[in-house]
Write a structure and sequence with these properties.
InterPro entries: MFS, MFS_dom, MFS_trans_sf. It is built from 15 helices and no strands. It is an all-alpha fold. The N terminus and C terminus are likely disordered.
Length: 446
């Protein structure tokens, strides 16, 4: 297997921001994710996706399924269209469409509606968001030199995550000003339109075709293109060992993370008590989110340098070993301090793996099929978490205290490590060069 080796010279954020196309792409992402964060936090009062309000593990699993599976159902459409249509247009149209459904959702909240109407409009907003996220990821190689994709990914992903948190904080502030009732919640939710429309406007400033795809390897019939989208993505993934191996590692991490997440939710709700300044309950979940956000931020800062020093292969292996150790050493005590530390370490390491896999897709997969690979990646990513949460819900005790399940989660990280090493040893298949890039000898894994 070949691994992407990054130059020793780091550009830094100032150098990237000096590239007009990158700056515009980053601004598109930041505006969109600010709107996402505000939209989701604005709906918190309606308790659309708050597992804390669910009574048992099965109901929590159902809540995650409602939240994540629509992403997976939309994934094939995302990939096929991103590799068929001008990605600039897809991003613009997706954001404008989302803005319309944000307004519908806000009206439903303001009118006091609940249940199916609210779920449908909210899930459309989030589902169409996959077009924006996948489109921005697939477009990045068109604005940044390949040798700096790891660093560029780290900057965009970290900045996007921070902006989503800022959007959520803005929602809290707006609710304070506008009121916490249905009317105030509706107005707060509607403000997310500003971020989505701003994102669409910024993306519209790109010239047609500049974000790709450069070539279209799609049937003329759109229905046929959508139907075969996942199959083409799977073929391109299999023919690219760096992507296949990385995806296996990432899916194992996501499944283990799903198990840990279910256990953490139950511990926070039924078992743990406040520990000094650390809080249990919904406050504890917020602290877990902050710890995870800090992990994402640190990964964004360090990943490029870690890959530069050790190479992609050693970086991914080290990250998986670190998560397994954190799962056992910090997870098993099942105390508030240890849970927060475990969240930080596990999400930090998982983000490192994700950044490496994102870069492998962007560098090693041909542009004409890259959107479909990202769509497959996105679909499997969410299915892995929902499946893990659902299986855990069937066997976990109500109080969440299950050392055996935590050990199973730790073993999944090691399974992911084994799968990564096994799949990375495969030779790259180049029988269909239209689906993967030829190795030019400038990049090596190892």
């Amino acid at each position: 297997m070949t691994t992407l080796a990054v130059e020793k010279h780091h550009w830094g954020s100032r150098r990237f921001l000096g590239i007009p196309a990158y700056r515009r792409l980053l601004a598109t992402r930041l505006a969109s994710q600010w709107g996402d964060g505000l939209f989701q936090a604005g709906l918190a009062g309606a308790v659309l996706f708050n597992p804390e309000r669910q009574a048992d593990p099965a109901a929590i699993a159902a809540g995650f399924a409602v939240l994540l599976l629509p992403y997976s159902l939309i994934g094939p459409f995302t990939g096929a269209l991103l590799d068929r249509w001008d990605r600039k247009k897809v991003i613009v149209v997706a954001n404008v469409t989302r803005a319309a459904f944000v307004l519908l959702t806000a009206l439903a909240v303001g009118a006091g509606l609940s249940g199916l109407p609210l779920y449908v409009s909210a899930l459309v907003v989030m589902g169409i968001g996959r077009f924006v996220g996948s489109g921005l990821s697939a477009s990045l190689p068109h604005v940044v030199d390949e040798d700096h994709l790891v660093e560029a990914n780290a900057l965009t992903t970290t900045a996007g995550a921070v902006m989503a948190v800022i959007g959520a904080a803005c929602a809290i502030g707006f609710r304070t000003l506008l009121g916490a009732g249905d009317g105030g919640s509706g107005w707060t939710t509607s403000i997310a339109v500003v971020g989505l429309l701003l994102s669409a406007f910024i993306a519209s400033r790109f010239k047609a075709g500049v974000l790709g795809p450069d070539e279209v390897d799609e049937p003329h019939n759109a229905i046929t293109a959508v139907a075969r989208g996942l199959l083409d993505g799977a073929k391109a993934t299999w023919r690219t060992p760096s992507v296949t191996a990385g995806l296996a590692a990432l899916l194992a991490h996501r499944a283990a993370f799903g198990m840990s997440l279910m256990i953490t939710l139950l511990l926070m709700r039924y078992t743990l008590e406040d520990y000094g300044i650390l809080k249990a309950g919904i406050g504890g979940l917020g602290e877990v989110a902050v710890a995870g956000g800090a992990g994402v931020l640190l990964a964004g800062i360090l990943t490029d340098r870690i890959v530069d020093r050790f190479g992609v292969k050693r970086t991914i292996c080290g990250a998986l070993l670190l998560t397994a150790a954190a799962q056992v050493g910090l997870g098993l005590p099942m105390t508030l301090p240890s849970i927060l530390l475990a969240s930080f370490v596990i999400i930090f390491a998982g983000q490192i793996v994700k950044l490496c896999v994102d870069t492998a897709v962007q560098h090693d997969v041909g542009d004409e099929v890259r959107g479909r690979v990202f769509a497959l990646y996105d679909t499997l990513f969410n299915i892995a978490q929902v499946t893990a949460v659902s299986i855990t819900a069937m066997v976990v005790p109500l109080d969440g205290r299950s050392p055996a399940l935590l050990l199973v989660a730790a073993s999944l990280y090691l399974v992911g490590l084994g799968a990564y090493l096994l799949l990375s040893a495969r030779k790259r298949q180049v029988q269909h060069p239209g689906l993967v890039r030829e190795d030019d000898g400038r990049h090596s894994i190892g």
